[in-house]
Amino acid sequence: MPLEVRTAGAVLLLFGQHVTRIAALPADALTTVDGHTVLILDRTPIRRPEPLALLLTRLTRQEPPGA
Question: Does 49 fall in a domain?
């Protein structure tokens, strides 16, 4: 399964975010605070456990489709 599909599915299932909101997340919604990966949803920083943090980090480093 493609990385973006796995990542979107994890965010959908864990946080109940609509697919349109997940697709609109900017790359800077993922950041590092005190050495921990944090996803910012609606201005709320949420610390991510390693499995999801790894997926999100890999996705932000992936080249966009058609690049």
Answer: yes
67 falls within a domain: no
Residues in the chain: 67
Sequence-ordered list of residues with C-beta below 8 angstroms from that of 45, at least 6 positions apart, any chain: 31, 33, 38, 39
Residues of the domain holding 18: 3-61
pLDDT in tens, 8-31: 999 999 888 888 998 898 888 988
At position 67, the amino acid (one-letter code) is A
Q: Is 16 left (phi over 0), alpha (psi -120 to 50) or beta?
A: left
Q: What confidence tens digit (pLDDT) does each residue in 43-63 have?
A: 888 888 888 888 888 888 887
